[in-house]
Amino acid sequence: MKKLLLAIFGICCCASLFAATGVTTPDGWTDDFAAAREESKKTGRPILILFTGSDWCPYCVKLKQHALDKKDFKSYADKRLILVYADFPNHVKLPDDLKERNMKLAKQYGVRGFPTTIIIGPDGGELGRLSGYSHEYLKRVRRFLKKH
User: Fold this and answer.
1) How many Å apart are CA 75 and CA 89, to the nearest integer?
2) If you ran DSSP here, which 8-state letter would residue 94 be given?
3) Contact 109, 118 (CB under 8 A)
4) Is CB count within 10 Å lower at the N or C end of the chain?
5) Pseudo-torsion of CA 52, 58, 68, 139, nearest 10°?
């Protein structure tokens, strides 16, 4: 029981620290889906959209720490993907237009929980979808991209 309480406390502290920075879009990511679509059409690179609750969702925090912030994911994504960050924070206030765009995007792709990752091709077709956290996140992303 003590370990569980400590784990919950640790996650809450990490989430609070992340929220306190006011950072909503990590380096290398964009929150502009329309611009990402244009870039994808020009370059032929697929788009990875991450739907996250960055400052309240424990699995979102875990995904960021154990996969997205890792050097192997960043170097892979830099060369092969366009990264879109659709955040739904509780403690950081997003601009109304961004909040509305994120909601529209989540509705468009039928997102029902966080974290959800959707990979779409330059033509807009869905190549793959991941729900929740996986310690094999990059491996699963690579698998989707190999198929297409």
Assistant:
1) 26
2) P
3) yes
4) N
5) -100
Going by C-alpha positions, the residue among 88, 33, 99, 32 that lies closest to residue 60 is 88
pTM, rounded to two decimals: 0.82
- Extract the tokens encoding 58: 């424990």
Containing structural domain, residue 27: 2-147
In what helix (H) or strand (E) does residue 95 lie, and over which residues does it extend?
none
Sign of torsion over alpha carbons 34, 37, 42, 46: positive
Q: Give the rounded distance of the alpha carbon of 9 from its chain centre.
A: 23
The 10s digit of each residue's pLDDT in 64-113 is 999 999 999 999 999 999 999 999 999 999 999 999 999 999 999 999 99
How many domains does the chain contain in total? 1
Dihedral over Cα of 145, 37, 133, 29: its sign: positive
Cis preceding-peptide flag for 46 (omega within 30 of 0): no
Question: What is the chain's mean pLDDT, rounded?
Answer: 87
Q: Which residue has the tokens 């468009």?
A: 108
Residue 121, both tokens:
């091709």
State yes or no: pLDDT of 23 exceeds 80: no
